[in-house]
Design goal:
The complex is a heterodimer of chains A (213) and B (542). Chain A is mostly helical and 213 residues long. Chain A contains 7 helices and 3 strands. Chain B contains 14 helices and 19 strands. The chains are: A mainly alpha (213), B alpha/beta (542).
């Protein structure tokens, strides 16, 4: 199984040859079905309109730094959650329910982009997109198009991270073992690995020291 | 343990391999008719409802528990996967407000038979004696109409039934546990190391995860997916600790049944049963007694929606108490970075805890306190922690690639009961046509001071263990209150025995009756309160 493209200075390649899917034979049937569905073809987009799909894809690429293939199909995964009403249910009183908040915030993203660069968000170049997002993030608890900027940011990152870090390719990148039933773990404790686990090849790559900043 | 089996045989009613409840129990379960006037109908089959169900069935009552969610089969309905466990949460529409709105729908909500104990971490601490007297002792919160001594024997019973494992407990009312402490993983090891360096006492446990075979339930396999529902059946939830015994004693559990209103006879003022929706059909279950156990959001919502001429402002709401004094715990989570590989996802998230800062410290500017526990977020929850620091794009990927090096502690801060932290009905309606709950939350200065103090202690512990960077996310855990017990009807909704003041045959038996919360995870106390209410109802104990 391929890994996701990520430059070593951004944390790529820390777990050489580690592939959780080689352990799939040790997973229970129900779990295996759920996880393997993420690896196959996704249901075509049905919740997002075409222009929302374009904005969402550009947004997710930015938030998750997906700049080339193969990508985790985040747009399709988020679209499925919204189409199937698999939201968390709650919404801030200052914000509509998730479905409407998604549509509105993607439209607003295009509005910001048109105003600043005269084109849709998806049509902007990478750095301009990053600048638009940085400006929204920096608004914090201030309003952005009638919603609290931080609440919109939280909506975006919550859905993006849930999709991306549910994917086995993302697990390979971070050294996570994935499903563990019925096998469990034999070697728990600091620096204790299972036979199938792979040590971090660059344990000194501490993001604290400014890698990838 | 033979004594446990004599009063609650649930663990021995699992199949020999421990994978599921004996299928015959469910297939041949007694089924009441809507027209049967059962002795007791219980709304909600979680920590409180299931305990009451089991106790009342044992006492010979004809009892049925309705639950809005499914009757789970762990082997086929649950997965060893984070995103795939979304269906364990209550995700019906709700609106949140106040100056510190509390997100719902995940860690603080449950769905289906077993309730939120299906996906709680498994921590099962007792409350401290001081929790029952915070108004008298500290001038904050409320006094309970019972004290610790009234609950103590029920704590002991439930600890045996779950069962709970842990070291001898030095805090609150010192006590031991029926099972020995579990071995700990990397995260627990670092907590112990850091606590030692800081002169803080930390203990392994208390967790309701069986350390060893218990009845037919297997030993924990340390796979770390406690929060996704224990497929192993090592971690306790009422689905396996109380429901099997209840069914064996003639109780019915009716899943997929959403109760929308409690009916009151306007002449006698007594409850006559509950309206519920099942498969899109409106039905009515007659009952001579009703117990509500829908937890802190749904219990007030159901009461507020049950209006009539006698109760125009909602059932049991003559004194505007329903929905008020709802509490969450401040639950900041602090993580530390180590050059070693911690791999905190290996082993159950609940491992080690400290209650050293639980009580009011006269030297501090705030009242009450906090506890500290290991929490071990899986990748999605960890990504939320990292992105809360403002990281996204390449920085997020970079931080996440460092996952194996991080240890993580969580704190539970005792937020105080305040009248305006409450559930009301919103204008929006759900698919049953029932108004959705609106939940407002605003912190007070004491709450904020506790969060800050707890974060400081967690940072010290992690640095004491050798962390070179610490990062914190502010979050919330647990819900209690919203229909609290009190000495008088002006101050609460139910009395010390969980009987409502306003309706003689209506009980509330869940976390919503708790007047304070301490900094303990509430599950054990909810079960103990329910067990006591059942005993009072059947007059077996005092």
């Amino acid at each position: 199984m391929s890994t996701l493209p990520l430059d070593p200075r951004h944390g790529g390649g820390r777990f050489p040859d580690f592939d959780v899917t080689t352990q799939a034979r040790h997973w229970d049937e129900t779990t295996r079905a759920v996880v393997e569905k993420r690896l196959g073809m996704q249901t075509p987009v049905r919740f997002f309109t075409e222009s929302e799909q374009a904005a969402a894809t550009a947004l997710f690429d930015q938030l998750l730094y997906q700049r080339s293939e193969p990508r985790v199909p985040v747009t399709e995964m988020v679209d499925a959650r919204l189409a199937e009403n698999l939201t968390d249910g709650w919404h801030y009183e200052t914000m509509p329910p998730d479905e409407a908040a998604w549509r509105a915030s993607l439209t607003n993203l295009d509005d910001d982009s048109r105003e600043a660069h005269g084109c849709l968000f998806a049509e902007c170049d990478w750095d301009d997109q990053s600048a638009i997002l940085t400006a929204i993030q920096n608004r914090g608890s201030d309003q952005w198009h009638g919603m609290v900027a931080a609440q919109v940011w939280s909506l975006w990152t919550r859905y993006a991270c849930t999709a991306f870090y549910s994917h086995p390719q993302a697990w390979n990148e971070i050294g996570f073992d994935g499903p563990a039933y019925p096998r469990g773990y034999k070697n728990i404790g600091v620096n204790r690995l299972e036979s199938f686990e792979v040590h971090d090849a660059r344990p000194g790559d501490d993001p604290v020291e400014g890698k990838g900043q | 343990m033979s004594e446990v089996r004599e009063r609650n045989e649930s663990a021995w009613l699992m199949t020999a391999d421990g994978s599921r409840m004996e299928p015959g129990l469910r297939d041949n379960m007694r089924r009441f008719d809507d027209d049967d006037e059962v002795d007791l109908v219980i709304v909600g089959c979680g920590a409180g409802g299931s305990t009451l169900l089991q106790r009342m069935a044992r006492a010979g009552a004809r009892v049925v528990a309705l639950d809005a969610g499914p009757f789970w089969e762990p082997e086929t309905d649950w997965v060893s996967d984070e995103a795939g466990s979304h269906h364990l949460y209550w995700t019906e529409p709700r609106k949140i407000g106040g100056s510190d709105p509390v997100p719902l729908g995940s860690n603080n909500s449950g769905r289906g038979v077993g309730g939120s104990m299906v996906h709680y971490a498994g921590y099962a601490p007792r409350f401290h004696p001081s929790d029952f007297r915070t108004r008298t002792n500290d001038g904050v919160g409320a006094d309970w109409p019972i004290d610790y001594g009234n609950l103590k024997s029920y704590y002991e019973l439930i600890e045996e039934e779950l069962p709970v494992s842990g070291e001898d407990w030095p805090w609150g009312d010192p006590h031991g546990y029926p099972q020995r402490p579990h071995p700990v993983g990397g995260n627990g090891e670092l907590f112990q190391r850091g606590a030692l360096a800081c002169g803080i006492t930390a203990k392994v446990g208390p967790v309701a995860i069986s350390n060893g075979r218990f009845g037919n339930r297997p030993h924990c396999i340390y796979r770390g997916f406690c929060l996704q529902g224990c497929k192993v059946n090592a971690k306790a939830s009422p689905l396996i600790t109380h429901v099997p015994d209840a069914l064996a004693h003639g109780a019915e559990v009716r899943p997929d049944s959403m109760v929308t209103r409690i009916e009151i006879d306007q002449r006698t003022g007594r409850a006559t049963g509950v309206h519920y929706a099942r498969g899109g059909v409106s039905r009515f279950q007659r009952a001579s007694m009703v117990a509500v156990a829908g937890y802190s959001i749904e219990t007030p919502r159901l009461l507020l929606n049950s209006t009539s001429d006698r109760f125009p402002n909602g059932l049991c709401n003559d004194f505007d108490q329903v929905g008020r004094y709802l509490m969450v715990q401040g639950a900041p989570q602090t993580a530390g970075r180590f050059d070693d590989e911690v791999r905190m996802w290996k082993a159950p998230p609940p491992e080690v805890s400290s209650e050293q800062f639980y009580e009011t410290d006269p030297g501090k500017p705030y009242k009450r306190g906090f506890s500290i526990q290991t929490v071990s977020p899986l990748p999605i929850t960890w990504a939320e922690h990292v992105s809360a620091q403002g990281y996204w794009g390449a920085d997020l990927r970079n931080y996440m690639s460092d996952y194996v090096h991080w240890a993580c502690l969580g704190s539970l801060c005792e937020f105080l009961a305040l009248p305006d932290n409450r559930v009301t009905l919103a204008d929006e309606k759900d698919r049953h046509g029932m108004p959705i709950a609106r939940f407002d939350y605003s912190q007070c200065d004491n709450d904020r001071a506790l969060m800050k103090a707890a974060t400081g202690v967690m940072e010290d512990i992690l640095k004491g263990a050798g962390a070179d960077e610490v990062i914190t996310i502010n979050r919330y855990a647990h819900l209690v209150g919203g229909a609290r017990m009190a000495a008088t009807e002006q101050k609460g909704v139910v009395d010390a025995d969980c009987r409502s003041f306003a309706v003689p045959n209506l009980l509330i038996v869940d976390g919503s009756v708790l007047p304070t919360q301490g900094s303990a995870n509430p599950a054990l106390t909810i079960m103990a309160v329910a067990a006591r209410a059942a005993a009072r109802l059947t007059q077996q104990r005092t």
